[in-house]
């Protein structure tokens, strides 16, 4: 669709170039599928002349789920403060807490193990909430419930594994801030 | 579905023509739209063939949504490697890798200076931008800086500050 818009804008500039070859392609295209965009025969003819590769959408339309009939009201989810305002407050508390934890290593070189652990835990939860927001935005529950569930559980697994990995790194190695400082100054 | 609707409209028109219809009688004729199963299946399948209207590719870059987009992108770009590194560190003994900090430091030290400077600046930029823009977000949560002028000013300030700070961290820290 991107290419249609752009070409419609540029079409008037390249009118003479488009016309001779424009009619060669669309006849076969339209004959192939009677269901496809039969409503724009001439525009697609003009467009067809410019594109040697298939028209690819940025983020093509996902499969549709039609639940019920057109007379049923839109289902509204039950709301709960745990997922609403408490979640918001907790998220901001983590973000605010991350500010001094991030500034301190630049002042002191690196953090001692206890502070580093607190920093890693806060960073991990902050990352989890951020990834969860991405999943909520890009995998709508009403359209693709299975995929949404899968991504949510993948994220939870990944967060737990990352937590274990960070604990191991803290215990057997120097910790995140010290490691970054070591590598940075190397 | 279209045929049914056409039938209902024409039926109502017929009624209007034949009788002097009062409002009460009109209310009795309620238009219902029902989907018949065969037609809706074709419709759902046909919807998949429809092109998606362009969005990200055509919208004018603006100081409102570009920093917001980059805030999310930089966040994912920072947390993704953190997750991957931690999980790789857990799996390293079983895969024969060595991901200890000393090993990483010595192998990074062996890089040419230009490559080190570029790598450090490239890693510092998302970190610094996300941090400064995060502070901007927190200011909005405190109801500060909401007007269009303030959003534009703070946005450009964050971008400039990120550029300068990441250059400092990458080249001179």
What does this structure look like?
The complex is a heterodimer of chains A (about 190) and B (about 170). Chain A is mainly alpha-helical and about 190 residues long. Chain A is about 65% helix and about 0% strand. In chain A, helix 1 packs across helix 4 and helix 6 packs antiparallel against helix 7. The two termini of chain A are about 50 Å apart. The N terminus of chain A is likely disordered. Chain B has a domain of about 70 residues: Fumarate reductase/succinate dehydrogenase, transmembrane subunit (3 helical TM bundles of succinate and fumarate reductases, Up-down Bundle), CATH 1.20.1300.10. In chain B, helix 6 runs antiparallel to helix 7. The interface between A and B is large, with 51 and 48 residues.
Highlighted features:
heterodimer, A: 3 helical TM bundles of succinate and fumarate reductases, 8 helices, elongated, disordered N terminus, B: about 170 residues, mainly alpha, 3 helical TM bundles of succinate and fumarate reductases, 7 helices, ubiquinone binding (chain A)
Choose one word for the global shape of chain A.
elongated
Question: How big a fraction of the residues of chain B is strand?
Answer: under 5%
CATH superfamily of the domain at 67-79 and 111-171 in chain B: Fumarate reductase/succinate dehydrogenase, transmembrane subunit
Name the average pLDDT of chain B: 86
The number of helical segments of chain B is 7
The description of the largest β-sheet of chain B is: none
Judging from the principal axes of the Cα atoms, what is the shape of chain B? elongated
The appropriate CATH architecture of the domain at 67-79 and 111-171 in chain B is Up-down Bundle
Number of helices of chain A: 8
What helical percentage do the residues of chain A reach?
Answer: 55-70%
Protein name (chain B): Mitochondrial succinate dehydrogenase subunit C
Main location (chain B): membrane
Membrane topology (chain B): Multi-pass membrane protein
GO molecular function (chain B): electron transfer activity; metal ion binding
């Amino acid at each position: 669709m991107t290419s249609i818009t752009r070409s419609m804008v540029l079409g008037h500039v390249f009118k003479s170039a488009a016309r001779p070859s424009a009619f060669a392609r669309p006849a076969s295209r339209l004959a192939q599928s009677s269901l496809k965009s039969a409503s724009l025969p001439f525009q697609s003819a003009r467009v067809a002349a410019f594109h040697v590769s298939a028209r690819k959408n940025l983020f093509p339309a996902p499969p549709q789920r039609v639940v019920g009939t057109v007379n049923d009201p839109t289902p509204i989810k039950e709301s709960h403060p745990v997922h609403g305002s408490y979640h918001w407050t907790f998220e901001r508390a983590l973000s605010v807490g991350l500010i001094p934890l991030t500034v301190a290593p630049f002042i002191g070189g690196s953090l001692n193990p206890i502070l580093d652990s607190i920093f890693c835990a806060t960073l991990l939860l902050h990352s989890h909430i951020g990834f969860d927001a991405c999943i909520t935005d890009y995998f709508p529950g009403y359209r693709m419930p299975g995929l949404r569930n899968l991504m949510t559980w993948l994220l939870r697994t990944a967060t737990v594994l990352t937590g274990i990995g960070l604990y191991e790194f803290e215990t057997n190695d120097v910790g995140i801030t010290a490691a970054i400082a070591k590598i940075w100054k190397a | 579905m279209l045929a049914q609707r056409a039938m209902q409209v024409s039926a109502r028109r017929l009624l209007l023509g034949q009788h002097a219809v009062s409002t009460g009688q009109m209310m009795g004729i309620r238009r219902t739209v029902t989907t018949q199963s065969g037609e809706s299946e074709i419709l759902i399948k046909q919807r998949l063939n429809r092109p998606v209207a362009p969005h990200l590719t055509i919208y004018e870059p603006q100081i409102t949504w570009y920093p917001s987009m980059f805030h999310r992108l930089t966040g994912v770009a920072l947390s993704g490697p953190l997750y991957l590194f931690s999980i790789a560190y857990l799996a390293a003994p079983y895969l024969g890798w060595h991901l200890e900090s000393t090993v990483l430091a010595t192998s990074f030290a062996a890089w040419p200076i230009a490559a080190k400077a570029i790598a450090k600046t490239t890693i510092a930029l998302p970190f610094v931008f996300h941090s400064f823009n995060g502070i901007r977000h927190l200011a909005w949560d405190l109801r500060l800086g909401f007007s269009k002028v303030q959003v534009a000013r703070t946005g450009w300030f964050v971008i400039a500050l990120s550029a300068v700070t990441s250059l400092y961290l990458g080249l001179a820290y």
